[in-house]
Amino acid sequence: MLINGVKISNSKIFKSEKGNLYKYLDKKNITHSKFGETYFVEILKNKKKNWIKHKKNFCHLAAILGQVQIILVDERAKSKTIYKKNKFLLSKNNNKLLIIPPGVKFKISSKQKLSLMVNTINYPHRDSEVEKA
């Protein structure tokens, strides 16, 4: 069972002999009307990115290179989630979009020598908006 508010969806792949086009976000799966920023996260194997929790931002995550393992923990006091921990594997091959709501902490690691993940958030990054462990 997914953590309450977490969504994972298939994204479309447009196949081409000149190189495929991978859809990332569209109006159906964006969780906000405001755009904050998009950034790319490089993850090296055996170099885990520690826990992070956004207070206001939704995170829209997809792997664009390699394989990214994401572990989620729901620490929200008013959450209706029964099972508070989930694990996901994102890769270019499965072309999934993972949407993490504010208040759910997560950490990421690479299953390959190098992985690259894209993240779009609804407000520009501010250190005061993020809790790290």
Describe the protein.
There is one protein chain. A hairpin with a 6-residue loop joins strand 2 (13-14) and strand 3 (21-22). The strands form three sheets. Strands 1-9-6-11-4 form a five-stranded antiparallel sheet, with no helix packed on it. The protein is mainly β. It has one domain: Jelly Rolls, CATH 2.60.120.10. The protein is built from no helices and twelve strands. The radius of gyration is 15 Å and the shape is globular.
Layout: helices, strands, pairs:
Blueprint: E1 7-10, E2 13-14, E3 21-22, E4 37-44, E5 49-54, E6 59-65, E7 67-74, E8 85-91, E9 96-100, E10 104-110, E11 114-121, E12 130-132
Antiparallel strand pairs: 1-9, 2-3, 4-11, 5-10, 5-12, 6-9, 6-11, 7-8, 7-10
How many strand units? 12
User: How many helical stretches?
Assistant: 0
CATH topology call: Jelly Rolls
User: Kindly, what is the distance between the CA atoms of the first and last residues, rounded to a whole number of angstroms?
Assistant: 25 Å
Global structural class: mainly beta
The whole-angstrom Rg is 15 Å
In the predicted model, the low-confidence regions spanning at least 5 consecutive residues are: none
SSE order, one letter for each helix or strand = EEEEEEEEEEEE
Name of the CATH first level:
Mainly Beta
